[in-house]
Amino acid sequence: MKNFLYYGVLRKILSFITSIVVVLCGGIPAVPDGMTQDSYEGLKDVYKDYFDIGTCISYSYCDNPELSEFIVKNFSSITPEWELKMENLHPSENEWNWERMDKIADFCREHGLKMRGHTLVWQQQPNWMLYDENGNFVDKEVFYKRQYDYFKEVMNRYKDVIRVWDVTNEALGYDLADGEFKQGEIYKLCGEEYIERAFLAAHEIDPEATLVLNENGLAKNLVKQGYLAKWLKIWLDKGIPIDAVGIQGHSNTVSIDETPERLEAVINIIENAGIKNIQITEIDMSLYFDKQDKSFGIQDWTKDYQVLKYKHLFRMLRRHSDVITSVSFWGPDDGHSCLTVNGEEEDGPMIFDRSLLPKASYFAICDFKR
Questions:
Q1: In a domain, 219, yes or no
Q2: Do the bridges between strand 250-252 and strand 244-247 make them parallel or antiparallel, or are there none, so unpaired?
Q3: 23 assigned to some structural domain
Q4: CATH number of domain containing 69
């Protein structure tokens, strides 16, 4: 009951503030009547002079003519949402599941789309490479050999279409209590060395590929920002081939911890560490604070606030287009998003609606004058 009252009061305050901000910002862009796929400019073309615009997709999207045409129009870069993660691609020593990943790769080849390899190492997932037949940890060198062979098989298979790899995903810790790195099974066996070895192996296999350290929660977590700054310096001083840092862009509309200003601070930290290739890898923006907040439903003021936040976000990203090379959404539209469970739950995190048409946020981020 206490939290319900808190959210109710907070929403009233934010609704009032938003109404004032909307007026000061010149209003919310109007969405023209009668919109069709032919009546607006593709987002990738709007941003062609700034950075690549990407989205994650599922293999099934490639077989949907309307959806695939929409994706090709608006995005220049594709990230497989699940198909390239080891849990699905190579779940056991003698099992490979290539069909779904091959479908996405062929889709990108056919349409001339760039592709991000996501991801080589994500210790949140089960990993058979760590264990022997009795379920005990193997020697870490056995693990590294298995991992190297896996990298080689996957990277060489898609070398013609994937030139950017998220080598590690979400490796850094969140707080002082749990330490500088997530305490997953790979870390328990190898320590932070596994990150260095992963980058060295990937570079040996494909020296020309762009290798990315992809991290989440950076904008809202000052402790994690400190870990990132510390370890980037250590790794770069040791010559570890980290070419780029990926900043996941998951957020909610009204969070005071996930603002464009805080994201900009992270960009500055990374650039000051010596990294000149920064990629925003997983943008979505929920209209809710959290699951409990869903009891209030979606209100008009939150939609307006989201439009303003998207506009401010992309204005900031354009300012840093000298170092930002790619900006990717985590889903092409509201109906194909993990936040809506592919359309089954109510939310509106993207700039395109469930009919694959632009929302006000699209027009806000495409207006470079206001």
A1: yes
A2: unpaired
A3: no
A4: 3.20.20.80
Q: Is 282 a catalytic residue?
A: yes
Q: Report yes or no on 2 lying in a domain.
A: no
Which H helix or E strand runs over 264?
helix 260-272
173/214 Cα distance (integer angstroms) = 13
Q: Are β-strands 324-329 and 52-57 bridged in parallel, bridged antiparallel, or unpaired?
A: parallel
Using DSSP, state whether 368 is helix, strand or coil.
coil
Could you tell me the pTM of the whole model?
Answer: 0.94
Q: What are phi and psi of 104, to 5 degrees?
A: -65, -45
Whether the CB-CB separation of 116 and 318 falls below 8 Å is answered with no
CA distance 75 to 332: 9
What is the residue type of 317? L
Is 170 among the catalytic positions?
Answer: yes
Spatial distance between the Cα atoms of 242 and 235, rounded to a whole number of angstroms: 8
Parent domain of 60? 44-366
Taking alpha carbons only, the member of 206, 175, 178, 189 closest to residue 139 is: 189
Out of 81, 170, 196, 215, the active site residue is 170
pLDDT digits (tens, 9 = 90+) for 196-243: 999 999 999 999 999 999 999 999 999 999 999 999 999 999 999 999
Q: How far apart are CA 151 and CA 244, in angstroms?
A: 18
- Does any domain span residue 242? yes
Q: Structural domain tally of the chain?
A: 1
Instruction: Say which of 83, 196, 258, 282 is annotated catalytic.
Output: 282
Q: What is the CA radius of gyration of the chain?
A: 21
DSSP per position, 319-345? HTTTTEEEEEESSSBTTB-TTTTTTTS
Count Cα neighbours of 300 within 13 Å in the Cβ-side half-sphere.
4
Q: How many residues does the chain have?
A: 370
CB 120 within 8 A of CB 151: yes
What are the tokens at 253?
Answer: 């509309």
Those residues of the chain that have pLDDT short of 70 are: 1-8, 12, 16, 19, 22-24, 290-292, 295
Q: What's residue 344's pLDDT?
A: 74
CB burial of residue 188 (10 Å; 0-12, 13-18, 19+): exposed
**Cβ atoms of residues 281 and 250 within 8 Å:** no
